[in-house]
Amino acid sequence: MSDSMLSFYHDFLDQWPLIYLGIWATIKLTVVISVTGFLLGVVVLYLSLSKNSRLARWVEAYKSFFIGTPLICIIYILYYGLPTLGFRMSPFEVTVLGFTLNIAAYNAAYMLTAYNGLDKTQLEAASAQGFSRLQIYSYIILPQVLRTSVPALTNQVIHNLKDSSLAFLVQYPELFARMQELAAGNFEFFKTYSLTAVFYILMASVIYFFAKNIERRVQAV
């Protein structure tokens, strides 16, 4: 092993406790924003199907804004902009809020595509039998939409993991932030960022494995 590699190895071991915490911070953030983004996406889809044209237009504007705006811009607005209005949140809270609003817009768009492929006669039949709009959505629309949207929704979780690296820009101590500290200390940028990529690939592979299992289970139903 060369002196350069040996030095990097020792630096890595010295920083490992913080890097380990960074990995768990990344996992925590990914899980939270994936769940909150999914739940809000379900709500956004429900509102987008409203017969109230004004509400539907507002929901469409919401989706267009958050899909069309770079995520980093949204996070910066929340982190640097809100304090000027008297609202202050922690880096974690800012990141969760920004990501949730963004992810929900994408998830709602995925599920709306699936909804457009449904046989609408079953919805008309349910309405004729006295089902409320919420019951039709909960018992008929949502289960079918989720089944069809599984590949897109699980791919979104992988995107959430990768995008979580943006959180370091607002001082959230996730994996990329910890690896930045390692690179700043030893100036071994190629080795450090290559290793960072490996960590993300390993975590994404775990998500991919579980996603494929979910897809197989759904297709078997």
Describe this protein's structure.
Keywords: Amino-acid transport, Cell inner membrane, Cell membrane, Membrane, Transmembrane, Transmembrane helix, Transport. GO terms for molecular function: L-cystine transmembrane transporter activity. InterPro entries: AA_ABC_transptr_permease_3TM, ArtM/GltK/GlnP/TcyL/YhdX-like, MetI-like, MetI-like_sf. This is Permease component of an ABC superfamily amino acid transporter. With about 220 residues, the chain is mainly alpha-helical. It has one domain (about 1-220): Orthogonal Bundle (MetI-like fold). The protein contains 8 helices and no strands. The longest helix has about 45 residues, at about 5-50.
What is the arithmetic mean of pLDDT? 91
How many domain units?
1
**What letter string, H or E per element, gives the SSE order?**
HHHHHHHH
- CATH architecture descriptor: Orthogonal Bundle
- How far apart the termini lie comes to 53 Å
**What share of residues is helical?**
over 70%
